[in-house]
Amino acid sequence: MSTPKIAIIIGSTRATRFADKPANWFLDFATKERPDLSFELVDLRDFNLPLFNEAASNAWMPSAAPEAQAWQKKIAEFDGYIFVTAEYNHSLTGSLKNALDQAYVEWGKKPMGAVGYGGVGAARAIEHLRAIAVELQMVPVRNAVHIGGGDFFAVSPLGQNGEMASIEGHIAGSAKALLEDIAWWAKATKAARG
Where's the NADPH-dependent FMN reductase-like domain (predicted)? Predict the structure, then answer.
């Protein structure tokens, strides 16, 4: 079996987003921690997705928008997904929800996890994300990375804007657990999909 390929998806498109810092940290951490997996950073900004306006989900008919088709082609390359998400008003970002809606077939029977950040570590956003993932027939994993409270303000421009290394000792355990979950499920679902 070939090495499972995991997308680390940046779920915010705002010009002033914080997501790049934890996403790049997680990519480096994951690459060092799990040589049995390959990782790629996927940025929603690169796809310029319109708001979902298809006649139906691509579970029922092909998407008409070329941007949606390009997005579907990209995410089909992967055997699992780790979403990097903020929490907006107790939920995930609108851009991430729209990106999830722009595909269906490509997500199915693959694991997903999350790295969340904000005052409460995006806990509520990640719970919403898991519920959406179930409907898209993904396999949500138990462990997640929550960058919240003092850790968030230590590395965020809203606080001290420090380096991610300054909080790595606090979040490395959950990052390893998330990667263990993703690795197990990516290998199992990849084998089952053939």
Answer: 4-148
Residue 48: other Cβ atoms inside 10 A: 10
Q: Are 166 and 155 in contact (CB under 8 A)?
A: yes
- What radius of gyration, in Å, describes the C-alpha atoms of the chain? 16
How many other C-beta atoms lie within 10 A of the C-beta of residue 191? Answer: 10
41 CB-contact burial (10 Å; exposed 0-12 / middle 13-18 / buried 19+): middle
Burial of 90-112, coded b for 16+ CB within 10 Å and e otherwise, reads ebbbebbbbbbbbbbebbeebbb
d(CA 95, CA 17): 12
Residue 159: CB atoms within 10 A of its CB come to 12
CB 127 within 8 A of CB 94: no
pLDDT on residue 33: 98
Give the separation between CA 159 and CA 151, rounded to whole angstroms. 10
- Here the tokens at position 185 are 């499920």
pLDDT digits (tens, 9 = 90+) for 16-50: 999 999 999 999 999 999 999 999 999 999 999 99
Q: Is the pLDDT of residue 187 over 90?
A: yes
Going 181 to 178 to 174 to 172, the CA torsion angle's sign is positive
Domains of the chain: 5-193 (3.40.50.360)
pLDDT digits (tens, 9 = 90+) for 47-68: 999 999 999 999 999 999 999 9
